[in-house]
Amino acid sequence: MQISDQAPDYIRAIAPYQPGKPIADIARAYGFREDQVVKLASNENPLGMSPKAQMAMQEAARDLGRYPDGNGFDLKAALVARFGLQPEQITLGNGSNDILEMVAHAFLRPGTESVMSAHAFAVYALASQAVGARLVVVPAKPADLGHDLEAMAKAVTPATTVVWLANPNNPTGSFIPGDQIHAFIRAMPASVLVVLDEAYTEYLPPEDRYPALDWVQEFPNLLVSRSFSKAYGLAGLRVGYGVASTLVTDLLNRVRQPFNVNSLAQAAAAAALSDHEFLDRSYALNRAGITQLTEGLASFGIACLPSWGNFVLADLSQLPQPGQRSGQALFEALLAAGVITRPVQGYGLPAHLRISVGTRDENAALLRAMPQALARLAASAAPATRAGG
Ligand SMILES: Cc1ncc(COP(=O)(O)O)c(C=O)c1O
């Protein structure tokens, strides 16, 4: 018997999350200066954070000897003012990842099931497995690799307590129109919590937006989670929020760490919410970047799935040489040029590569590195697919 045997089998079976490679690691490994490395691997905002958020954070940094406000009064007030919510409907998280974990702790346990789509965000599986629930993965729609809502509804059983929906989804970039989501929630049994993960919602074009936060009044079994890591540019601070009925919020608060969101994050997030100019600029840069990457990659024979997020999913399966059709191999070839992307074989997509939208120059650096990377792979044998990612 060794100490690791004491962990339940379902914990030992977890494959750890593989984050995007940090710039410093690649600079060290390949002998680049850090400013020579371009990171398009973690769906961050290439503009960094809003100047207003930066100022609010610096102000808050004067008082770090004290614990943060465990109830996040000011940030909740800012969310209430911005979205017309009640403070009792809001749960703050150390990133929206924290909200997803709280859901798993509060609503899942051995003997229960959670339902997710194939190729959906990895944390739904991790959070479910960590509490011993059975994970039911529903095949995605072949056309866009997005959620098949009809099949997901059919996968719900009396043991199901949570259904995870990512809209838009990472890593596929796929999007489900709001009316379909609404109909799906309406058809769910009241005993099933629908988690609608809207980490990328600020990137939706105006015509695709839908009022999910209003639906929380209508459905006591809906939780909408949102992030400050993406369009708001606060990924390093770790802050997100969940909006739900008081029935759900009350339970999440029972499993929440007392001081889960730090003071800098709370101050920056509250200020970021009202920096509309920064959000507009981030949105516009992202739309332009998606066009730049999609058109640029098309010129090398690589199609991208339509994306509603701040990244594109490049499909390598139509490239002429077998050695070019591996996301892992292209990722490695691009690293040698100082460009970090994200292989997604861990998502069941070995012939795809996820590329986050950068600045115009960063996107151009990726496109410049492409011919040599592809040429190198054309000359190599088809590599074996590795696990992870
Ligand atoms: C779909 C989705 N949900 C949630 C998250 C978690 O983001 P965070 O914890 O930074 O808010 C991510 C991060 O990549 C994501 O892609």
Layout of secondary structure:
Blueprint: H1 9-12, H2 23-30, E1 38-39, H3 51-60, H4 73-83, E2 90-93, H5 96-107, E3 113-117, H6 122-130, E4 134-138, H7 149-155, E5 160-166, H8 178-187, E6 193-197, H9 212-218, E7 222-227, E8 240-244, H10 246-255, H11 263-273, H12 276-298, E9 303-304, E10 311-315, H13 327-335, E11 339-340, E12 342-344, E13 349-356, H14 360-379
Parallel strand pairs: 1-11, 3-4, 3-5, 5-6, 6-7
Antiparallel strand pairs: 2-8, 7-8, 9-10, 10-13, 12-13
Helix pairs in contact: 3-11, 4-11, 5-6, 5-10, 12-14, 13-14
The chain binds pyridoxal-5'-phosphate (PLP).
Pyridoxal-5'-phosphate (PLP) binds next to helix 5.
Provide mean pLDDT, rounded. 96
Q: Over the alpha carbons, how many angstroms does the gyration radius reach? A: 21 Å
| Strand line-up across the major sheet | 2-8-7-6-5-3-4
Give the ligands present: pyridoxal-5'-phosphate
Low-confidence stretches: none
- The best one-word shape is globular
The rounded distance between the terminal residues' Cα atoms is 31 Å
Q: What is the helix/strand order?
A: HHEHHEHEHEHEHEHEEHHHEEHEEEH
Largest sheet: 7 strands, mixed
H/I helix tally: 14
Report helical residue fraction.
Answer: 25-40%
Number of separate domains: 2
CATH topology of the largest domain: Aspartate Aminotransferase, domain 2
* Percent of sequence in beta strands: 15-25%
